[in-house]
Amino acid sequence: MTPEDRFEVRAAVRQAVSVSIATGLYGISFGALSVVAGLDLAQTMVLSLLLFSGGSQFALIGVVASGGTSGAAITTAGLLGLRNTLYGAQLSPLLALHGWRRVLAAHLTIDESTAVATAQKSRAALRAGFWWTGIGIFVVWNLLTLVGALAGDAMGDPKAWGLDAAAGAAFLALLWPRLASRVMQLTAALAVVVAVALLPFVPPGIPVLAAGAVAIVIGQVARQPRQPVTVTEYVPDGAANVPQDGGGEQTPGSSDPDEPGDVGRPGGPSDRTEEP
């Protein structure tokens, strides 16, 4: 490994450690909100260890907290987790792993580990960034999830503290910064309208799935490439005979930057007759 490679690896490790600490702190919120939503300590820890996808975990406990069925909660979490499949397809040829390392890498493939890994320039730094970020977040997240779950369990009845709607609010807080474009904002607004409209008529959890389906359809339509628009260039009168690419005949007095011209007419053809 060259000195430059070692420098890039150390930089990737520093970045991974900072990301792991910043992201892992959310584990406290998840642990507390999971218990508030109705899961016990063991269920919370098993969910965090096996699922290990922050957005999907918050979505799952959000559906559970709203009274949704386990099937609706699992489906919602699964739909959000599909993005990790795309990350895996991107990272697989870069990491080039086999055997149990490949299985472990699949479990650690999340937003943050993918972002840190793909930001590196060398293969060694990419691998260091992926492993340090994935393992770092896994350890910090689950340790702080345990702390949060113990704290939430000590609170007792969540309704006495007004925390029965906290899971949904926490997921909204995670989603809000991602609504950067007008299309995302309109998609989210329409999904909310669909979910609220279905609340009186369908079992709990179904409105969330319906809203997700609406968002997926709108997202696919918005991504379709637009047909190219042909623009007819306006050509002023008298300029039709001027060649555009330097080819063909030139009219007297036309400009060609490759040919020297007379004084006062830079680039124009000379009117003088060549001496034999």
UniProtKB/TrEMBL annotation:
GO cellular component terms, alphabetically, are: plasma membrane
Q: Which GO terms describe its biological process?
A: L-valine transmembrane transport
Location (main, coarse): membrane
**Region feature Disordered, mapped onto this chain:** 232-276
Q: Where in the cell is it found?
A: Cell membrane
Q: Which InterPro entries match?
A: Brnchd-chn_aa_trnsp_permease
Q: Name one Pfam family in it.
A: AzlC
Keyword line: Cell membrane, Membrane, Transmembrane, Transmembrane helix, Transport
**Would the keyword Transport turn up in this protein's UniProt record?**
yes
What residues form the membrane-spanning segments?
Answer: 16-39, 59-82, 130-152, 158-176, 183-199
Q: How does it sit in the membrane?
A: Multi-pass membrane protein
Q: Which domain of life is it from?
A: Bacteria
Family indicated by similarity:
Belongs to the AzlC family.
Its recorded name reads AzlC protein
